[in-house]
Amino acid sequence: MAKDFSPLVEDLREDPIKASDSPTTTEHVESEKKLSRRSFLERIGAAGVAASVPLLTRSAPVTQDSAHPVDAPPIDTQAETSAGTVPVALKVNGQTYNLNLEPRVTLLDALRERIHLFGTKKGCDHGQCGACTVHVNGRRVNSCLTFAVMHQGDEITTIEGLAQGDQLSSVQAAFLEHDGFQCGYCTPGQIMSATALLKEPCGPNDDDVRECMSGNICRCGAYQNIVAAVQQARQRA
Amino acid sequence: MENFEFTKASTVQDALAATRSASSAQKLVRFVAGGTTLIDLMKLNVERPTTVIDINSLPLDRVGATADGGLKIGAMVRNSDLAHDPSVQKNYAVLSEALLSGASPQLRNMATTGGNILQRTRCYYFRDTAYACNKRDPGSGCSAIDGYNRIHAVLGGSQHCIATHPSDMAVAMTALEAIVHVEGPAGERTIPLNEFYLLPGDTPDRENVLRPGEIITYVTLPPLSDGTRSHYLKRRDRQSYEFALASAAVVIRLQGRKIQRVRIALGGVGTRPWRSLEAEHALEGHEASEANFRNAAQAAMRSAKPRQHNGFKIELARRTLLRALTTATTA
After folding, report:
1. Are residues A51 and A104 in the same domain?
2. Is this prediction's ipTM beyond 0.85?
């Protein structure tokens, strides 16, 4: 059943900025076969759509289109008319991905929707929250405010690139130890910022850490534990 | 976001040639450097370029001394690098402080000197295409003047626009009497930063004196005489990662307690980085005292025009300047 609905899931997940290829690494293909949290949630989501449609149909008059969302056209209606894509080679966590992207695809969308590294999060998508923080050539940046095509030849590091196998980085371990999160959505960005902070000029006090981490918003308010985690990672660095 | 043609320029000449050819093909051209303003506004459909030229490879990423002992800052120098440059920290503290008070570490790693000068207002009506805005859509009207205008300007506004310029860096540079170096179809020229920005008047869509096809290449800062002190103070709705409601940049030299020379610029309150000649005149040749600082703060805001929600900025700016002057002149 899930298989029947998978095209809908794909359509909803696809960035409206659609391009013509998909990442070609074998690891990605392999990982898609496993039941990850993401694919599990997607299947639940698809089943949820299937279950809700009859209810909607019963409870209110609906148009032909909305009664059959599965048959609705993909939300990407511009794919055929948009200008061409350009080849972009992105080096992420030491691995090179050869993609064809429209120039308007942000680094964030390329990482998530094309390379399928979902650790980097999309929060505000306007440089106001820090959830999308990654490292470009060792410096932390907001990946939502830069185009992927601008990063050919750059060394990009995402949250997936910090651990050595099962060995967490010192910052990751410190966040675990100090419970530096609640819902976890901002955590990859927090950890990428904290990791960069270890090499930046930043004063020794908690207030200095707060200032240096101010580009990462945590709406759960886990700041106290985040500061403790960052301070511990700095002491051990 | 609409798609666009993308090209990359590795020299200033390349960038100018790419602009020329795209413009002659009726393309709307934008240079992209850090992207922190442009890409944000492209996502909002406020900026809709059809050609984007990536200038991140331009060899303009150095900070160096000028022959007269000043500082030459490449347009591509990132805000974080400029803020932590040893010569900036030593000789132009106001600039380092202003840069570090702006945005976040991530954004400062991206944002460039040239881009910061050209960043666009945070007026919510400018950023939302559902509203009329003379700056975004000339002649459509100003939604801020009779709308919610708490963050808007009290100095330099017109009946067509009261949007503030959001830069901290440019406020410090205005007090440092920075010179903007540009290159374009007609060659190179220099513009004092204080003459670079235009008041909105009845053409708020024209924000500066750059001509079509011109690109900022450098900013130079004149040398400061020994003993000059400087300071940047920023007041905002939260402690960090927020634009100024009011800010003050002070560059001052005392002889004993007498003020020999002072340059003052205000941020968050003007439609452009606001050099206050009135405050400077009130101080030069006078003693560095609280009474004189208060007089200067009064003078700075004398022509301020409050709107419905931003009247608090007048007193806030006075106190910000008073505090900045006090800090800068206290050993």
Report:
1. no
2. yes
| B 23-42 residues inside an 8 A Cβ radius of A | 32, 34-36, 39-40, 42
Tell me, yes or no, if B52 comes closer than 8 A to chain A by beta carbon. yes
Q: How many CA atoms lie within 13 A of A225 on its CB side?
A: 17
Nearest to B307 by CA among B128, B170, B143, B197: B143
CB atoms within 10 A of CB A7: 13
Q: Is residue B207 domain-resident?
A: no
The answer to whether residue A81 sits within a structural domain is no
Cross-strand bridge partners of residue B242: none
| Host domain of residue A19 | 2-71
pTM: 0.87
Does A78 reside within a domain?
no
pLDDT digits (tens, 9 = 90+) for B88-97: 999 999 999 9
Looking at the 3D structure of chain A, how many domains does it have? 3
Nearest to B324 by CA among B232, B228, B224, B229: B232
Q: Could you list the residue range(s) of the whole structural domain that residue B12 is in?
A: 5-54
Residue numbers in A near B84 (CB within 8 A): 201
Residue A184 lies in a domain: yes
DSSP character at residue B88: H
